[in-house]
Structures are given as structure tokens and as C-alpha cells.
Amino acid sequence: MDNDKHKLVIIVGSVREGRFGPVVASWIAEQARLHAGFDVDVVDLAEIDIPLTLPAASPKYAGDDYPRPAAMAPLTSALESADAFIVVTPEYNHSYPASLKAAIDWHFTQWTAKPVAFVSYGGAAGGRHAVLHLENVLTELHAVTIRDGLSFPNYYTAWQDGRPLDPQAPGYAKTLFDQLAWWAGALRTARETTPYPA
Ligand SMILES: Cc1cc2nc3c(=O)[nH]c(=O)nc-3n(C[C@H](O)[C@H](O)[C@H](O)COP(=O)(O)O)c2cc1C
């Protein structure tokens, strides 16, 4: 990895059959690669084994001894090595999908003192309820959520051929990346300088 670049992990949060999530994730990954600040990795939760049954121990305290399924290793190592995250989430019943909650709950320290931005989509609210809930949950893990996100209401009329119809969308994405890169650099320096007092 180029050391001047931040490792950005983009998480595809929905695993539903016929889902739209990968379309949104591909576009935001393409935009991120155009931005000079990141090495981009896309992690699709549909490709990871994420059981709902958790071990007895807490991932907050168990550290490397936390007994995760072997097939979860690609997710864990991507989260571990990330300097920044973008969570791509739809809205299900005014919140985010259970697949995302399960992925979050199997981990803890991997999120701590790292920035998270959101790209959401859905019906009229554009996934904003999902993002509000994610902001609340990720604060518990000591992640830092980024104010400027992208939200796509009524995505079924707002996208064509894998891209948003709104000509301003790439500009909004750049603002998101600029803020995410700023926080990624600041927090990476802070993590390397002083242990986070969790
Ligand atoms: C179980 C379920 C609940 C949904 N609830 C909402 C909702 O509360 N608000 C909304 O705007 N859209 C809602 N939708 C529409 C989804 O946002 C839309 O289907 C979107 O494509 C889902 O993302 P996905 O295709 O990546 O799974 C819901 C869809 C499903 C399947």
C-alpha cells in the first residue's frame, strides 16, 4: 500500500436476493478511486459467513482470542486494517439491515477511533433513518461518524446504468471523501501516537 494513502473499506450492507446495494457500492468505489487519498477495498457482506449466534465472550474484551468462524476472517482483517469506512446501506423498516448489525456485533476494536461515512438509499427517506441508527450504534464502538453523507431517495428512479442521475452526486462524493480523508489522517496519527483510552 502507498503509505500516503488511507485504506478505505467500503461495506456492502445488504445481502437480500436481487439487492441494489452492489450498484451503489460499485459507483462509490469508482468515485473513491478517482480521489487521490485512498486505497479502496470493497467488502460484500453477502460473501461472508456471519452467524446470528454470538460467542459468550465480548469482542470488546476478548481481543485476538475472540472465536470467530474461519470464513469471517476476510471481514475481520479488512476491518482491522482499515483507516476509514464507508457503509453502503439501504433502509429496512426505518432502520438498517440485520446483516450489518450482525457484522458490527462480531467486532468492536476494529472500529475504534476510525472514521465512518455513509452512502444510503431507499424509498422517500433515502435511507436516512438507517444512517441515524448506524451513527448511534457506531458511537458505542468509539468510531467517528462523518457529517456529510450521500443519500439517494427513491433510488429506482434516481439511478440509471449504474450511476446516479443527479449531476451533483460526484461533487457530494468528493466532499465526503475530503472529510473522510481528513479524519482518517488525523485519527491514524492519533492512534499511532497515543493508545486510545477506551
Ligand atoms: C424488508 C424491507 C423493508 C423496507 N423498509 C423500507 C423503509 O422503511 N423505508 C424505505 O425507504 N424503504 C424501505 N424498503 C425499500 C428498500 O429500501 C429498497 O427495497 C432497497 O432496494 C433495499 O436495498 P437492497 O436492494 O440493497 O436490499 C424496504 C425493503 C425491504 C426489503
UniProtKB/TrEMBL annotation:
InterPro entries on file: Flavoprotein-like_sf, FMN_Rdtase-like_dom, NAD(P)H-dep_reductase
Lineage: Bacteria, Bacillati, Actinomycetota, Actinomycetes, Kitasatosporales
Domain NADPH-dependent FMN reductase-like: 7-154
Listed name of the protein: NAD(P)H-dependent oxidoreductase
GO cellular component annotations of the record: cytosol
One Pfam family from the record: FMN_red
Gene Ontology MF terms in the entry: FMN binding; oxidoreductase activity
Species of the source: Streptomyces asoensis
Gene3D superfamilies found in the cross-reference section: 3.40.50.360
PANTHER family recorded: CHROMATE REDUCTASE, NAD(P)H-DEPENDENT FMN REDUCTASE LOT6
Residues making up the signal peptide according to the UniProt record: none
Residues forming coiled coils: none
